[in-house]
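Predict structure. Chain length: 124.
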Amino acid sequence: MSNTIVLKAIEEKQLSNSEAYLILRNIVEKIREETGTVPLLLSRVLEYLKTHHKIPSEKAGELHELLASKGLKDETIVMLMNICPSSIDELRYLMELEEKTPEQGILEEILATLSNYCTGVAPS
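Prediction complete.
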């Protein structure tokens, strides 16, 4: 028989895979300490996030803030953090949700910032 866990949403926020991994990892650890087991769905989601993030989780909040300081929407920031574009053309394509595409100089700054954080491979 499985245990039912009831969760209540306190706030809704756009999260990158790296940010979601960090939060869910802490929740799973807490559940494991309290109950000794973790529901299969939570384990699977955690495993997916562990293998599908390109930014070190401990640096995700910092990168999110840097990109937000460029005036980007949260939806755009999440896409950039999950995909980690490596060229201006890729970056422009991901700016579709922005009302106005940033100028070339800003795009280059964003790309340079991303290249400093994106590892290209999810950590194990």
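Summary: The CA atoms of residues 54 and 121 lie 5 Å apart.
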